[in-house]
């Protein structure tokens, strides 16, 4: 199995998949390897990529909160974050980081309150505003992630503030977004979900080659038999993972696959 993150890893900085990388993935598939996308992104983003590049198969979405069948566009399994937990965590974070804003990711939409002012072009059409923070906790939807955003702190500083603010009972991480902290149900990680998926397929960790660039990828890179940190990876990832490849702009994933499978560039 080849398990790859998307942003900053498989995709170039403009969000596209290079022809070289697509050829390398097709070569690996032809040789019998399964390609699994392992991303912080929700299914709606994976759908757009699948339409553009012809992807099928399986994706682990929302940092492990969802397993998604790309071909049939169905959620195979999910681990929701209880709204009561999200509210408790948001209360603690608001005390630790004044001015912080919150949103709820459902996989199909983002519900956000007025203080959450982060806007992403790829989420156009999926964003649903609510009048106040209190209204956010009235949402009658399954929540895959609580998103916390600050216009004053970067993602590393926000994560440190959350950890120092006695926020517990959840999984805290980030994927490099501008001042964005991602919060999932306790125990939800990319590696945890991928390991269950592999067990169901009879695939051992040693048979998995993984690629990633951000702190939310560390669990997978450490679990896989061969974990590769991208050349453009976060400093903590480069320090923790001994094996590196080229950057996403240099087709680092393709470079490894070509060597593993004897593919032409």
Automatic annotation (TrEMBL):
Protein name: Cof-type HAD-IIB family hydrolase
Sorted UniProt keywords: Hydrolase
Gene Ontology MF annotations: hydrolase activity
Species annotation: Streptomyces sanglieri
InterPro entries given in the database record: Cof, HAD-like_sf, HAD_sf
